[in-house]
Amino acid sequence: VAEGEPGEGREPFELPRFWDALGQTFQVTSQEATKLSLAFSRPPLPSAEDCQKLSEDVQNAILAVATVYYWLPKGQGTTLRKMVRDATTEVVEGMIQLTDTILNAPVESLSQEQLISTGGVWEACEQVSNLPRGEYNQAAVVSALAACLGVVKDAVEEMEHALVEGQDPYGDIMEDEELGFRGNRDTYWSEADRQLLSSCMGLMKASKACLKKVLAAVKAHGKADSPEQIAQLDDLADIANEISPSVDELALSMYPPVNPLAVRLNAAKLASVLKKVLEIAKTSHVCPPSEEGWVQFLTGAVDHNMNKVKNFTQGQL
């Protein structure tokens, strides 16, 4: 499941039928996990015959889950397929863990590990109800973009909080052997640092605005009626996924002692990802003429803040 690629089925693909079948197989797997766990929750052990029946039922349930996943053709969109694949993998891994726990646990009583593993399979099987089922790939891309936006929002808020005038960025850490004495200037920002970091904050805020706007555009205009539209949505989700790690890398390099060249490098990486997102959005179907204004504005904001970062670090080159 983790490595394989679903093929293009011979029969016409019906999304509602797929969701029904996937929901049913996940439900059956959850029930088989309960049966297996109960059979080994107290002595006496099931007979060899019962063990064989239990293991066959578990195997059939897992094979059914994998089979239904393989129904989902590539043409429905890679973002949707990745979400279904992750959910399917979690169910299979959960069942492997439960089986291992039972094999390694003493028979006298129901172990804590066995309870946790059984709950893990139930939780994994319930994930199917959280999968985005809107218009094919569009709902999956909305879900992926919203997740990215949440992470970037948190990073921006954390850095804003740390940059409050006069605040010690390591105020929540007591005197530490590695950091040295609290008076060590390596744990504080200089005035020059703060000037550089304000432009970096501009880039981080542009990241948040960029994801917000792209998300709204996909919600308003995103369609999955043609292979081209599906591919454009996937491209947007793929590049948007690069924003959050780039924001994190920049944020980490902003903590003292500040190395201006490392900050410049990470700022340039983030600016490059944002320009790519805006370019892909601009040339896709989610950006009719009514959306072009914010694309232009945010492109300008990224360039403006990146130029300021370059000016502040020019002397370091």
From TrEMBL:
A GO-annotated cellular component: cytoplasm
Entry keywords, A to Z: Cell cycle, Cytoplasm, Nucleus
InterPro entries: GCIP-like (IPR026907), GCIP-like_N (IPR049317), GCIP_C (IPR049318)
Chain ranges of the Cyclin-D1-binding protein 1-like C-terminal domain: 175-279
Primary subcellular site in the record, as a coarse category: cytoplasm
Family recorded in the similarity comment: Belongs to the CCNDBP1 family.
Protein name in the entry: CCDB1 protein
Subcellular location: Cytoplasm; Nucleus
Leader sequence segment: none
Gene: Ccndbp1
Domain Cyclin-D1-binding protein 1-like N-terminal: start-end pairs: 22-163
